[in-house]
Design brief:
Shape: elongated
Distance between the termini: 93 Å
Structural class: alpha/beta
Largest sheet: 7 strands, parallel
Helix content: 25-40%
Radius of gyration: 23 Å
Strand content: 15-25%
Order of helices and strands: HEHHEHHEHEEHHEHEHEEEEEEEEEE
């Protein structure tokens, strides 16, 4: 009987300890909870999860550092216990199993957001998705998508229990590599547009918010890792994925520019961003999210708005966000013609030289350019990614005190005026 009572006593004390720990982790240090919770998930495949990226952020102290105003899913302080299935993640939390606790962009984004908001605002960030997964297996009706919805639902429910307003201004999208590598040839634009529509509807049904949920767009750059990649092909499938990502950011008000990533460092110059690069992506995403929260939209980013064939030359005009354009060959290793190509129907690059004239790019060519594909970022050393050896370009724009905007990759037809 004494042994049995002792066993019950241990369980009681363990339960009390767990309650105290959970309460301590989820509460603000001063005991007062902020009035508003802004939730911004990062979603996609392995780059969203931070695979291979060595931790730069002290995620065990991250919530405490911000006095409880920076939290993860379900408004808890523990970060980095990511798994496809919730029960696996909860088990990892319980035993503190950190085999996949990598740096991901959510941490730096969260810190920048919580630093910009007042004391009455809590920021909830987390990563979701699944590595090595095509877009068709990340959209509505798939386990990763349902897992994302569950994380948002749990976070919203916790906020409502606390009497807090909860809303999701944006989802940060980091996916595209698998559709390139595996040559899925799906209608990527249609899939991503439908994802945006579903996210907007489903999140609103959970939170009750009126404001739209925008997609902050990353751009895939691992073209040179694809086995059939031929940069001079007029119909280059691999660049169609980043082209679609750029088009949606440019043409669809439900999308906003985060950043392309070719100007960053990748682990072993291959597939995954390193830890420092993940933090940089997070800061770019935070800038876009701040715009969305404050103004309802964001005009950030650098991308073409007009590509005109002018005889044996091409004139490229860009959106007006950046006040000054430049070619940076220090941050990004110089590439032929600063990353620009003009590809004929016969799969030939006819670009001879590239220059900046009145904040426009002018490409001089050796043949007529009408109907040619004007391409930026279609290059790179086989099986490499990133600023040193991968598919890349040197064009960057500057705007006041914001981070410099690296031009999004693109591949579009030159037309006469």
């Amino acid at each position: 009987m004494k042994i049995k009572m002792k066993w019950y006593s241990q369980w009681i004390w363990l339960t009390i300890l767990c309650v105290v720990m959970v309460g301590g982790l989820t509460a603000c240090d001063d005991g007062k909870k902020p009035n508003v919770v802004v939730c911004v998930p990062v979603y996609g495949q392995s780059l969203a999860m931070g695979e291979e990226a060595e931790l730069v952020t002290d995620i065990d102290e991250l919530s405490h550092k911000w006095r409880g105003r920076l939290v993860g899913e379900a408004l808890r302080a523990g970060f980095g216990y990511y798994e496809d299935r919730n029960w696996k993640r909860e088990l990892k939390r319980l035993i503190r199993y950190g085999n996949r606790r990598y740096e991901n962009s959510a941490y730096a984004m969260g810190e920048m957001l919580v630093g910009a908001f007042g004391e009455d605002t809590m920021v909830c960030v987390f990563a979701g998705g699944r590595g090595a997964t095509a877009i068709s297996n990340l959209v509505k009706g798939t386990p990763p998508y349902e897992g994302l919805m569950e994380d948002i639902r749990k976070s919203c429910n916790e906020a409502q229990r606390n009497g807090q307003e909860f809303f999701v201004p944006a989802i940060c999208w980091m996916q595209g590599e698998s559709d390139m590598f595996d040559y899925t040839r799906v209608d990527y634009r249609k899939k991503l547009e439908q994802f945006s529509t579903d996210i907007n509807k489903d999140v609103k049904s959970i939170t009750g918010q009126q404001r739209d949920v925008k997609i902050v767009g990353y751009q895939s750059c691992c073209l040179a890792k694809c086995y059939d990649y031929t940069p001079e092909n007029y119909d280059c499938y691999e660049i169609s994925i980043p082209q679609t990502q750029m088009q949606l950011i440019r043409d669809d008000s439900m999308f906003a520019a985060g950043t392309p990533v070719y100007f960053l460092d990748f682990v072993d110059d291959r597939l995954h961003l390193d830890g420092k690069s993940q933090t940089i992506v997070g800061r770019y995403n935070a800038q876009a999210v701040l715009d969305i929260v404050r103004y309802g939209s964001s005009s950030r980013g650098l991308y073409p708005v007009r590509i005109e064939a002018k005889g044996q030359a091409v004139l490229i005009e860009f959106n007006g966000y950046c006040s000054q354009l430049a070619f940076d060959t220090v941050r990004v290793n110089k590439v032929k013609n600063y990353g620009f190509q003009v590809i004929t129907h016969h799969n030939k690059d006819i670009a001879k030289s590239v220059s900046l004239v009145d904040n426009c790019v002018v490409i001089e060519c050796c043949e007529e350019t009408k109907g040619c594909k004007v391409r930026y970022g279609g290059n790179g050393e086989r099986n490499k990614s990133g600023r040193r050896l991968g598919a890349r370009g040197n064009l960057v724009g500057y705007h006041a005190a914001a981070l410099p905007s690296w031009c999004y990759m693109f591949s579009e037809v030159a037309t006469e005026k």
